[in-house]
Amino acid sequence: MGHQVKEIPTKPYDGQKPGTSGLRKRVKVFQLENYTENFIQAILDSIKAEGATLVIGGDGRYFSPETVQTILKIGSANGVKRFIVGKDSILSTPAASNVIRKYKADGGILLTASHNPGGPNNDFGIKYNVSNGGPAPENVTNKIYEATKTIQRYKVIEADPVDLSEIGETTYGPSQVQIIDSVKDYVELLQEIFDFPLIEDFLHKNAHSFRVLFDGLHGVTGPYARAILVEKLGLPEGAVQNCVPLPDFGGGHPDPNLTYAHSLVEVVDENNIQFGAASDGDGDRNMIYGKDAFVTPSDSVAIIADWAEVIPYFKKGGVKGLARSMPTSKAIDLVAKKKGLEHFEVPTGWKFFGNLMDAGRLSICGEESFGTGSDHIREKDGLWAIVAWLNILAAANKESPNKLIGIKELLNKHYSVYGRSFFSRYDYEEVSSEGANKLVTLLNEAIKTSSLNNTTHHSKSTGQDYKIGSVTSFSYKDPIDGSVSSNQGQIILFDDGSRVVFRLSGTGSAGATVRMYIERYVAPEAGEKELNRDTAEGLKGLIEVALRITKLQEFLERDEPTVIT
Ligand code: G6P
Ligand code: ZN
C-alpha cells in the first residue's frame, strides 16, 4: 500500500540550537510558519529514523496536541515504524524516560519547557531523549542544530489526525501509533522501587498526626500523584491539590520552590501540615516542605542516600555510587565517605549523571536546583523523591514507634551525625551581560594571579573571619568517555571548608542570570544550637564577605537578589 510522501520546501530559521534541556522558545515562535516542522525534521535527519520506535509525550502545555500531530505526520514520512504516545499527549519527563527504557524505544520527543510558564503568550519546548531514556548528549544536539541551519525541505504524509484520547493501537499511513495510559507504567515502576505496604501502614496509623499535602501546581504530575498517593497509598482526596494539568498551568509558574510554590506553602503553614511536597510543570523537580521544616535539595539527596537500605530497590540492587552537581552542597559526600561509596562531582545538568549510571557506577544523585533521582531512569524524578521521603519516614517511625519522627526530626538526626552544610542560592535574574562579565573577569583575574589566596575577610555583622584558600574554575573530565567540560563555574574556597560558587545560568531567556551559591559546613561537635540555626542566620557572615570581595552588587547594579532559595 503506497502512502504518498510529500516534500514541502522550507528555509532555515536562526537560533534553533537546543539548550540544556532542548529547544525552548515562546509559543508564538514555534507557531511561525514551518518553525516547528523544521526542528522536527532536523531531529529526524540526525537520528536513524527509518524503522525506529519513538515515544512522544510532554507536560500537556499549550501547543502540545498540535505538535504531536505534526510529529506523527513528519515522523511517519521519514520512516518511523512505531510511535508510542501518552494519552492526550501527556507523559511526565520521568514517565517518558521510563517508557523509552521499558519498551526499548530508540528515543523520544518530549514536549515541555519544564517549569517555565505556559499558554499562548508563554513558553513551549521540544526536547529529544535517546535510547537510554536520558536527554540527548551534545554530539546529538549539535547534529540537530547543524541540520536546522541547512534545511531545505521536510517530508509529510497525508493522514487524518489521530485521536489522542483513545487508548489503543491504530495504523497511521505506513506506521503504527500506540496511545498508552500516561500513568500506569510509572505507577508500576514506583511500586517496584518503594515499600508501598510500609508507607501505607504508616500513613494510615498516623492519619491525624502526619498529614500529607501534594501540590501539582497544575502541571503534569497531578494524575500521577493522585494515582500514587490517593489510589495506592490510601490518602484522602484532600491530600492532593491543583492536580488537574492545565495548558497554562492555571496562569502560575510551575516551579517547586518557596517563591513560586506559594499555593503549597500557604496551606502547609496555615494548617500545620507535617509533610508538604510539590513538583514542577513536567514532573522532574521536587520540593519537600513541612510545618516548620524546609528541606534543601542538597540535604534531601544526602538523606535519601543515607537511608537507601530501607528502600527495596537499593536493598536489592545495592548502592553503586553517589553524585551531585558542583554547586550542590557537599552533604552527600559525607554520606559517601562514611559508607565507603564512590562519589562524583559533575557540572550542572542532569545529562552528566547518565554516563555514570550506564556504566554501573552511580545509583543516587541530586542537584541544588530541586532535582533528585536515581538510576531507575535517566531523568531526575519529582515523585520518586517525594515517595522516597515517605518511605524513609515510614521506616524511621517503625524504628522509633513512641515518638513521631517528622521532617524536622529526621533533618536534626542527620545533622547530629554528619554535621550540617548550610546552603543557599541567590539568583540575580536578567542583569546586564556587561555587569555579569565584569564579575566573571574579576574572578578570572583572581584565579590567574592568585591575588585573593591567603587573604582574610572580616564580617562586621557576625564578627567572623574568613580566610580564602583558593579561587578556581571548575572543569570536569567525564570518567567514562573522557570528554572535558570547562568553565563550569568559579569557586571561592575558604580554609574552613566554606565555599561560594558563581555561575551564569544556562536556562535563562533574557539578559544574563547570575547565581551565587553559598555553603558553610558546621560539624556535629558545634552542638544543637549551632546546627539548628536558621539558614539565613548561619550564612550571614559568609554572604557579607562574598558580596564585598566580588563587588557583585556594584557590577550587577542590584542590592538584592531576585530569588533566594
Ligand atoms: C535544568 C536542568 C538541571 C539543571 C538546571 C540548571 O533544570 O535539567 O539539571 O540543574 O537546568 O539551570 P541553570 O539555569 O542554573 O543553568
Ligand atoms: Zn522540569
UniProtKB/TrEMBL annotation:
UniProt GO cellular component terms: cytosol
Sequence ranges assigned to domain Alpha-D-phosphohexomutase alpha/beta/alpha in this UniProt record: 16-154, 185-289, 314-404
Q: Which superkingdom heads the taxonomic lineage of this protein's source?
A: Eukaryota
Compartments, as annotated in UniProt = Cytoplasm
The answer to whether the entry has keyword Metal-binding is yes
Q: Record's Pfam families?
A: PGM1_C_vert_fung, PGM_PMM_I, PGM_PMM_II, PGM_PMM_III
Keyword Transferase present in the record's keywords: the answer is no
User: Signal peptide position in this chain?
Assistant: none
The record's family statement is: Belongs to the phosphohexose mutase family.
Protein name listed in UniProt: phosphoglucomutase (alpha-D-glucose-1,6-bisphosphate-dependent)
Lineage start:
Eukaryota, Fungi, Dikarya, Basidiomycota, Agaricomycotina
